[in-house]
């Protein structure tokens, strides 16, 4: 049986799922960070996260299939230990952490990084790969709490000076990995249940349309504009997270 949400709630859910699909298809997860906060305007954040995870896994199949072979394999392997660490910490602290505090912290970090990238868009040298573990750990944690893994991942990947396609592909594979890691803890904590699973199933076509549209859009955006869009998105996400916290 489907959840008994209001019309406004369903509209926000549909829009959020579509936005996440577009993000998965061609914009490296940035826009998708807005999904849970948008859905949380009408339903609880826990319900929003649980409803969205099965859809993220479906989107990951489409996105990884489209981008497979173009990702930086070494970068993904560097992320795996940190992703497990972040998800494990999120699982252990899930019942004790303040969602408002997490959103506020993540929002401030996102705004600070976006400001840095805006003022210094070209670094003298790429960031060291040793920062992969802490970045992936934060990504795993924030992804577990609110499917908001893009900002900490971008903090590490953007200064690595990857090409646009390699950047998108690496993000697509990394998000697929962390979402698979999150599945068992989500089921164990009860965030995914029969009711949320039915809602997720109904929304699969919206997710598919979003991914296809994202793939279409990214091929029509030049690289300079693309990174400006990423920075702009991070500003929007940061302000949105802070607004949600306040």
TrEMBL record:
Gene Ontology, cellular component aspect: plasma membrane
Cellular localisation: Cell membrane
Superkingdom field: Bacteria
Protein name, UniProt field: Probable membrane transporter protein
Keyword tags: Cell membrane, Membrane, Transmembrane, Transmembrane helix, Transport
Membrane topology, record value: Multi-pass membrane protein
UniProt keyword Cell inner membrane present: no
Entries under InterPro entries matching the protein: TM_pro_TauE-like (IPR002781), TSUP (IPR052017)
Pfam family, one: TauE
Keyword presence, Cell membrane: yes
TM segment ranges: 7-27, 39-64, 76-94, 100-119, 162-181, 188-210, 225-243
Principal location class: membrane
Family: Belongs to the 4-toluene sulfonate uptake permease (TSUP) (TC 2.A.102) family.
């Amino acid at each position: 049986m489907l959840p008994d949400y209001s019309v406004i709630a369903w509209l926000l859910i549909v829009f959020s799922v579509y936005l996440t699909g577009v993000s998965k298809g061609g914009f490296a997860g940035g826009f998708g960070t807005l999904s849970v906060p948008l859905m949380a305007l009408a339903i609880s954040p826990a319900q929003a996260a649980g409803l969205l995870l099965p859809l993220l896994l479906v989107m990951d199949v489409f996105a990884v299939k489209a981008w497979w072979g173009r990702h930086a394999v070494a970068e993904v392997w560097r992320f795996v230990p940190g992703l497990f660490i972040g998800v494990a910490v999120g699982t252990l602290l899930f019942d004790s952490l303040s969602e408002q505090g997490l959103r506020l912290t993540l929002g401030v970090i996102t705004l600070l990084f976006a400001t840095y990238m805006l003022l210094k868009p070209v670094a003298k040298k790429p960031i060291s790969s040793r920062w992969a573990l802490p970045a992936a750990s934060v990504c795993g944690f924030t992804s577990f709490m609110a499917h908001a893994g893009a900002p900490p991942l971008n903090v590490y990947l953007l200064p690595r000076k990857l090409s646009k396609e390699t950047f998108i592909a690496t993000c697509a594979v990394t998000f697929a990995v962390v979402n698979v890691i999150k599945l068992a803890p989500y089921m164990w904590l009860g965030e995914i249940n029969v009711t949320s699973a039915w809602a997720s199933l109904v929304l699969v076509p919206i997710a598919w349309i979003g991914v296809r549209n994202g793939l279409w859009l990214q091929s029509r955006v030049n690289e300079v504009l693309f990174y400006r869009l990423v920075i702009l998105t991070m500003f929007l996400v940061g302000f949105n997270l802070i607004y949600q916290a306040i």
